[in-house]
Request: fold
Amino acid sequence: MSPEDPHAAGNPEADSPTAHSRRTFLAASAVSGAVAVAGPVLDAEPAAAGTAEAAAPSSRVSLTVNGTRHTVTVDNRTSLLDLLREHFGLVGTKKGCDAGACGACTVLVDGRRVNGCLTLAVRLEGAQVTTIEGLSPGDNGPLHPLQQAFIDQDAFQCGYCTPGQIMSGVGCIQEGHAGSPAEIREWMSGNICRCGCYVKIVRAVEQATTRKGH
Reply:
């Protein structure tokens, strides 16, 4: 550092009260300017998020669930799974992975199997939806043949995946994909049982298929 440097040690100008005051003023001005610039940006983020949330589009949809007609207005992002559980109180359909990988949310739409978590509710205008609650005619009525077969074959353990397994099995039978154990395993491979009851599940579907044939 040269002797001419005003900030050099021992330089009278660097050590003067005027020099300190000038440096303090410049530092304070820089901080104040940064706060003034950053303040509006930070304050704008919550407002923008709130605006986006308020602007979320919704639609009116009419569909029949387990024989009952419903007309609801829902956020366009609402899945069939959330519609069934949160709007209609039909919690028999389970939320597992919420990504279409486990089959716990399987229901029938117009007689065919779908993953409720991957199906948008607003796309089901006029659809006929059947959940596990709709398989039997009532609380005191006979069980669906596949429900009874699951009991007969002891085809469950914890039971969490059972509603999805049964709905998938019903769809599998209706689609004509239950002609052999190998075919049943192939067409129900999207339904995961973490307890490992696959052998008994296949037997239950076979039993229901045989009784349906009679």
